[in-house]
Write a structure and sequence with these properties.
Length: 117
């Protein structure tokens, strides 16, 4: 069964890159451009993993992450932060990998495979 990755980022170029990258590596994708849209997509799509930008309009990554963890059906979905924002946001648990933009393809794929088993 193909795993689904929800990409949440407000940069269309980054979304296009990640979508193509994941699809080329045999993952299905869904896309959201802010945290609010991301929560709605997560509820509808039930992703196996989420990539999350932290600095976005409307509802940023921190609020998305908090909402995801409060949802009983989504609270265990693994998250990988891909962001240009500095140090690890304090709201993230230690098990959430934080990758800095521009992201290394090899490192990203390694993290995805590790989290999805």
């Amino acid at each position: 069964m193909t795993k689904r990755i929800l990409i949440i980022d407000d940069d269309p170029a980054m979304v296009d890159f990640l979508e193509e990258f994941f699809q080329d590596n045999d993952y299905e994708t869904a896309v959201a451009f802010n945290g609010h849209e991301g929560l709605e997509k997560a509820k509808a799509e039930k992703p196996d993993l989420v990539t999350l930008d932290m600095d976005m309009p409307k509802k940023g990554g921190t609020l998305f992450y908090a909402g995801l963890r409060r949802n009983p059906t989504l609270k265990d979905v693994p998250v990988i932060v891909i962001s240009g924002v500095g140090p690890r946001p304090p709201s993230l648990t230690k098990d959430v990998p934080v990758l800095t933009k521009p992201v290394s393809n090899d490192l990203l794929l390694e993290q995805v495979r590790t989290l999805l088993g």
